[in-house]
Amino acid sequence: MKNKTKKGLLPIFLGILLLACAALLTAHNVRADRSAQESVRTVLEQMDSVPTTQRNTAVLPALPAYMQYPEMEMPVRVIDGREYIGVIELPSLSLTLPVLSELTAVNLTVSPCRYVGSAYLDNLVIAAHNYTSHFARLRDLAYGDTVIFTDVDGNVFTYEVAQIEMLAPTQVNEMTDGDWPLSLFTCTYGGGARVTVRCEKTEN
Questions:
Q1: Which of 26, 96, 128, 201 is the most buried (most CB within 10 A)?
Q2: Cα(134)–Cα(195) distance, rounded to whole angstroms?
Q3: Is 100 within 8 Å of 87 (Cβ atoms)?
Q4: Which domain holds residue 157?
Q5: Contact criterion met (CB below 8 Å) for 85 and 118
Q6: Residue 95's domain is classified under what CATH number?
Q7: Long-range contacts from 54-57, C-beta under 8 angstroms, 24+ separation
Q8: Helix boundaries (H) for the chain
Q9: Is 68 inside any structural domain?
Q10: Alpha-carbon span 23 to 78, nearest angstrom
Q11: For all residues of the chain together, what is the average pLDDT?
Q12: Nearest to residue 150, comparing CAs of 45, 83, 41, 52?
């Protein structure tokens, strides 16, 4: 009889344990999202120390350096020891985020990161966590939505959403295949797939 009682209690105990683990994981994700949101706000404040209007209306050479030398490395701005290449704006989602130059596990907890490529060579790929403060709403973008990337020198690159697809985590080559000037991606919850947004360049 005691053995039956113990066997009956085991599933209940396991169920409680699983619920506790799920609650802890959710709490961790909420804390990470809030921390990322605060990091983004701090970085944007520092990047905005030069007003956008001033950056865009400053006297420029006849041809920007990146047009003369598209193979050049994208310039960076160092903030809190991290290198940023610019800011990505998704107006339809009311989202403005700094973009780190290099993708690492730690950098992804701070802000979106360059996965590969360059805005100057029309092959920029940007990755971000599916935090609500990062790319969680990427799937809500619609065809034709505007996407704006501004580098740290104030050069503005304007795009529009041309394709939205789901890629498996193993489809690494597919992420960079094709002639897309800008790609944005994030993992779905659970990491089973990557929401991938392809963008065509438009006139600035």
A1: 128
A2: 13
A3: no
A4: 40-201
A5: no
A6: 2.40.260.10
A7: 55/150, 55/153, 55/154, 56/154, 56/156
A8: 2-47, 52-57, 65-68, 105-108, 172-176
A9: yes
A10: 37
A11: 84
A12: 52
Spatial separation of the C-alpha atoms in residues 200 and 180, rounded to whole Å: 6
Structure tokens belonging to residue 35: 């921390």
Q: How far is residue 202's CA from residue 179's CA, in Å, rounded to a whole number?
A: 14
* pLDDT, tens digit (0-9, with 9 covering 90-100), for 26-66: 566 667 677 777 777 777 777 765 444 445 555 555 788 99
Within a domain: 33? no
Instruction: Look at residue 3 and tell me if it is in a domain.
Output: no
Handedness of CA 95, 99, 103, 107 (dihedral sign): negative
From 38-47, 165-174, 182-191, the region with the lowest mean pLDDT? 38-47
User: Residue 78 above 80 pLDDT?
Assistant: yes
Dig out the tokens for 55 from the structure: 């950056």
Q: Are 202 and 159 in contact (CB under 8 A)?
A: yes
Q: Is residue 181 within 8 Å of residue 121, measured between CB atoms?
A: no
Q: Residue 59 has which token pair?
A: 């006297």
How far apart (Å, rounded) are the C-alpha atoms in residues 85 and 102?
9
Total number of domains in the chain: 1
The CA distance from 204 to 149, in Å, is 11
Q: Are 124 and 131 in contact (CB under 8 A)?
A: no
* 89 and 95 Cβ atoms separated by less than 8 Å: yes
Task: Provide the 8-state DSSP code for 92.
Answer: G
- Dist CA 163 CA 79 (whole Å): 33
